[in-house]
Design goal:
The protein is α+β, with helices and mostly antiparallel strands and 333 residues long. Helix 3 packs across helix 4, helix 6 crosses helix 7 and helix 7 crosses helix 8. The longest helix has 24 residues.
Length: 333
């Protein structure tokens, strides 16, 4: 995607910018900033011949792990791309309705983020869900390019900028110059992968069962402890599979750090592969300017440190890393 062409084609023509993420969906309205930010979740009831929508967003998030047999939680996206068109349609319909209200005389036009490595089938699924949700024209924009804009990188200059966008379902690495992507690589590893690794480790090592929200809370606790310079054990609430009873388990900080680092190393390997493929002039620019991290995964301090140690390059996390894609998409409005 060339940024200059995207500006020329869409500036002033789109009503909304939609960051449809694996973990959260964010919507930007021109002049108002981010007006919607809720989990990308739906809850359906299968009690009837056709599934009935029960809850979306924050309300559905409160139901995770607590639904009775006839209800199910649906994740519209898996590993960064739309996996469930029905849930994606309902999520978009709900999000757009909350963002701008429903009293509009014409269809709403939007720019929407999509992973750089999305296949044509995955793009078509996203456009189908958007059309079914009542949106008008929808223009997909590369998420790592949008994140680079949102992070304040000089993407239109004749100088290389390197960005690592670590979302919940996928991590995308891009080198941008003159408004386009010069080198890109995606790995289907993100914050959710880390949560799953923590839950699996507790199950296998400690016979202890936790849900995804508890695993995410443990990950956040590790990040907070490291930022504070603490080494206290991390308390984790779950179910002891030996006794069958609820319990609080004190997990050594170093043990959880080791679990997280196994996933971080996959991202570091992908960063090094991109650097190995980078032309020398762009490599010189990156040596001077360093690497910028965005996305929820960037808030795991271990990632920034590991990339810096492995590459020897200055590495920093963008200000407001969670909002960079949404802000970048919003700049096209």
């Amino acid at each position: 995607m060339n940024i200059a062409k995207a500006y020329a084609a869409w500036r002033g023509r789109a009503d909304l910018a939609i960051d449809l993420g694996t973990a959260n969906t964010r919507i930007v309205v021109a002049g108002s900033g981010v007006v919607f930010d809720e989990p990308s979740l739906c809850c359906f009831s299968d009690a009837h011949w056709r599934p009935a929508l029960v809850a979306v967003g924050e309300e559905a998030h409160r139901m995770v792990g607590r639904t009775p047999g006839k209800m199910r939680i649906a994740h519209p996206l898996q590993r960064g791309v739309l996996d469930n068109i029905e849930a994606g349609r309902e999520l978009l319909r709900y999000a757009v309705g909350k963002a701008i209200g429903r009293s509009r005389l014409r269809a709403v036009h939007a720019v929407i983020g999509i992973p750089a490595d999305a296949t044509q089938a995955e793009r078509n699924a996203l456009l189908t869900a958007a059309r079914d949700a009542g949106l008008g024209k929808v223009h997909p924009v590369s998420e790592p390019i949008a994140a680079a804009i949102g992070a304040g990188l000089p993407v239109d200059l004749a100088a290389g900028s390197m960005l690592v966008e670590c979302g919940a379902g996928t991590t995308e690495i891009v080198i941008v110059s003159l408004g386009g992507s010069c080198v890109t690589r995606s790995v289907r590893i993100g914050g959710d992968t880390v949560d799953g690794a923590i839950a699996a480790h507790l199950h296998l090592r400690h016979n202890f069962l936790v849900g995804p929200t508890t695993a995410e809370a443990a990950k956040r606790a590790v990040s907070a402890q490291l930022a504070a310079g603490s080494a206290d054990p991390v308390p984790v609430k779950g179910r002891n599979l030996m006794s069958g009873a609820p319990e609080v388990l004190e997990i050594p900080l170093a043990e959880l750090v080791g679990v997280i680092m196994k996933q971080v190393h996959h991202i570091v390997d992908a960063v090094q592969m991109v650097l190995n493929e980078t032309p020398p002039e762009l490599a010189r620019d990156i040596f001077d300017n360093g690497i910028v991290l965005t996305g929820g995964g960037a808030m795991i301090g271990l990632l920034e440190q590991a990339i810096g140690n492995a590459t020897g390059l200055a590495t920093r996390t963008a200000e407001r890393p969670l909002d960079c894609v949404a802000v970048g998409l919003g700049s096209l409005l």
